[in-house]
Amino acid sequence: MAVISAEQGGAITGPSSATRSELSQAWRRFRSNRIAVVGLIFILFLIVVAIAAPALAPYDPLVSYEGTRGDAPTLANPFGFDHIGRDLFSRVIFGSRVALIVGLFSTGIAVTLGILIGAVAGYFGGWVDTLLSRLLDTLMAFPIIALLVVLAAVLGPSSTTTVVVIGVTGWARFARVVRADVLSIKAEDYITAARATGVSNWRIIIRHILPNVLGPVIVLASLGIGGIIILEAALSFLGLGVRPPTPSWGGILADGRPHLLRYPHISFFPGLMITLTVLAFNFIGDGLRDALDPRQKT
Asked: Under 8 Å CB-to-CB from 298, ≥6 apart: which residues?
């Protein structure tokens, strides 16, 4: 740390002020990306909708109303009714909860496992790295959707199962990125100095290495949430995701599939929401990638 005395008319600076400066620069770069800001606003709006779903939904999403089977959208019912007379607007609103819960929590599990396994493999090397790397390669070579279908079928469909299954099968890409960064960082002089002073390996990993690999992981996670939402929709479409009649976007798509020609609106609106949500997360990921790119720091 460099300290300039008051007599020299300078100011005391330290790591905390440098970190704040880097974060403020990254935020300015992110704000300059209008598409990323639009994506962030949409996701924040979707979070509010998911939290306030009981207050925003005009009808009970589980109740069928007589004489409304497959009714087209109207001003009173902007998304129309499904094949058994349930209000689609209400079901899509409640379905946002499932999409966000599965997307965010599954990503959290995958990121945690990926950081832990990648850091251990990259830092300790040797047989530990060989063993974990082979496990990583095996998981990435296996068709992920086939593995998800098998695990979901064995464990049974539910929200918890969907979150856990997607989370524990999606860590490999995060582990690969973290491992590569750790292999580079552990050769730095400050890591060697920390070892020489007797700092424990785990303290070095947690305090000195992980903060330097979080940037790429955050970008990868934000880009991956959209893919996880699609995986959840695929599982629900196959009847292996959230258990009916709980509304989920993939489940609503599955409900509308047999009636696609007669009642196309049943599949159109959940499909539109999946598309917009995935695009929004991808826009945020692109914005974060540009904002956190070290080559753009000033």
From this structure: 25
